[in-house]
Design a protein that fits this description.
Blueprint (H helix, E strand, L loop, with lengths): L21 H9 L2 H18 L3 E2 L8 E2 L3 E8 L1 H25 L4 H4 L5 H5 L21 E10 L2 E8 L6 H14 L1 H6 L8 H11 L11 E4 L8 H11 L2 E3 L4 E4 L2 E6 L2 E4 L2 E4 L22 H6 L4 E3 L10 H4 L2 H9 L6 E2 L3 E2 L3 H9 L4 E5 L8 E3 L5 H13 L4 E5 L5 E6 L2 E10 L1 E4 L4 E3 L4 E5 L13 E8 L3
Helix pairs in contact: 2-6, 3-12
InterPro entries: ATP-dep_Glu-Cys_Ligase-2, CP_ATPgrasp_2, UCP005522
Organism: Rhodanobacter ginsengisoli
Pfam family, one: CP_ATPgrasp_2
């Protein structure tokens, strides 16, 4: 990040405390650092007792790790949240309209707003979904939209997660731990609740009952199993919703109807909240060597006997090159101006833009179109000569696989680190639930924080942590 860039601090340092943080400022001034350190250790004990971990299998050592948790909440005023919520709902409606169009008439391609190659040659495009009508015309039923802030009223969408977005369990458990550690703090602040998210998720899933559902839908959560990095979240959400957590071997499809094996015999399943990727979902249609999915799931879906959430093929909306066109989707499908801004983005598949990126590589963030988790990314201002040269070669070899963006001056919030309380950069992942009946957004979301001084990478696999996100009710 350029050293002369002004960074917006959400608490208000050093210019004075902003109104949403007034009570937090008073609290921090009254609590000794030793007490915060003690509470941080208590939080770690609680997280270990509950079993909140994520898995990293590529670095050796203990694969199961705690995500670092910061005790100082991030605070949003009600008016700030309402602006965000309206923008999130608008963006989710546009993305779902786009997904329906992609698998039906492809009007946005014919109108020239999105290049055909970006859709039909995309690895996430699933031709098997063509012409299939889904309940409410919704495809991305659970969407995580990653946001960053650069000023009091300046929010940008970094990316859209429409396949199987994770992290909501950390949002819920962060709040639970904060309530246990600092009940008095909550009594002094009017904080909007998030504990009803599982109820909202269950209501969303129920609204997505397939056309041929015989009555109240039976819902299950399909997990790849205990070795998946997000298995804790799968088990947590299934338990909170009161639905069965199943693996592929627990299900079968007969005559295009899905059943669950139970001790009382076969039970029909109508809606599957699946956390298994498209490729592994149905070995009869996608990867034939998959042991994680269920043969015939896709045919049960096409026959109108089963709803899969999120829908197969929704991942095309995750593509970082498709992301460039989301503001135009809002205009095209909704006839509205976008309420949320994209980060200005260079499409490296275009020769003029590639030339600019190569000339300014040391100033830009370069991302792989299909990358995630902070991998496959170059942060130009923080990169050495060797890394810059390696990315230069990658861009020249496969420019269509990359986009580039300016290095934003991400906002900071107060964070308790070893040296005391210091500003650290954050992002925000709100979760948008798109049912056949309506769109639901629980106030707040998962705040991820870059714990290293000056770092912009918030991913837990890259040394980031999380915070509780407070939306004040008044």
């Amino acid at each position: 990040m350029p050293s002369d860039t002004m960074i917006f601090d959400e608490m208000g340092w050093p210019d004075g405390i902003r109104a949403p943080y007034a009570l937090i400022d008073a609290w921090l001034k009254s609590v000794p650092a030793e007490q915060l350190a003690l509470k941080r250790r208590e939080a770690e004990v609680l997280f270990r007792r509950i079993g909140i971990t994520f898995a990293v299998y590529t670095e050796g050592g203990d694969a199961e790790r705690l995500i670092p948790f910061d005790l100082i909440p991030r605070v949003l005023a009600q008016a700030e949240w309402q602006r965000l919520r309206c923008g999130l709902e608008q963006r989710a409606r546009a993305l779902n309209a786009f997904l329906h169009d992609v698998y039906h008439d492809r009007e946005i391609i014919r109108a020239g707003h999105v290049p055909e190659r970006l859709i039909l040659h995309n690895s996430e495009f699933r031709p098997e979904m063509a012409g299939l009508d889904l309940p409410g015309q919704m495809y991305a039923h659970i969407t995580g939209i990653d946001m960053v802030r650069t000023g009091p009223d300046d929010y940008y969408v970094l990316e859209d997660n429409c396949r199987t977005p994770s992290g909501v369990s950390y949002m819920l458990e962060n709040r639970e731990v904060m309530l246990r550690l600092f009940p008095d703090l909550f009594r002094r602040n009017q904080v909007a609740p998030v504990a009803h998210y599982p109820d909202e998720l269950l209501a969303t899933l129920r609204s997505l009952a397939p056309p041929n559902c015989p009555g109240e839908p039976t819902i299950v959560l399909l997990t790849p199993g205990i070795h998946n990095s997000a298995y804790y979240e799968h088990a947590f959400l299934a338990d909170e919703m009161g639905i069965d957590l199943v693996e592929g071997a627990d299900l079968l499809v007969s005559r295009d109807v899905c059943y669950q094996r139970t001790t009382a015999g076969l039970e029909r399943v109508d809606v599957i909240y699946r956390r298994v990727d498209d490729d592994y979902l149905d070995p009869l249609v996608f990867r034939p060597d998959s042991m994680l999915g269920v043969p015939g799931l896709h045919f049960a879906n096409r026959a109108g006997n089963l709803t899969l959430t999120n829908a197969v093929g929704a991942g095309i909306a995750d593509d970082k090159a498709v992301y460039i066109h989301v503001p135009e989707m809002v205009r095209f499908y909704l006839g509205e101006e976008p309420l949320l801004k994209n980060v200005p983005t260079h499409d490296c598949s275009k020769p003029d833009e590639l030339r600019y990126v190569l000339e300014h590589l040391h100033e830009l963030v370069v991302k792989a179109v299909h990358g995630s988790g902070g991998y496959g990314m170059l942060v130009g201002p923080h990169a050495g000569k060797a890394e810059l040269e390696a990315f230069r070669l990658l861009l020249k070899a496969r420019p269509q696989d990359y986009i580039a963006q300016p290095t934003l001056a991400l906002s900071t919030v107060p964070t308790f680190v070893d040296a005391g309380i210091a500003p650290r950069h954050v992002d925000l992942r709100p979760f948008v639930l798109c049912g056949a009946d309506r769109i639901r957004v629980v106030p707040g979301g998962l705040t991820r924080v870059a714990l290293k001084d000056g770092s912009l990478v918030v991913n837990s696999s890259q040394g980031g942590g999380t915070k509780d996100t407070w939306v004040l009710e008044s």
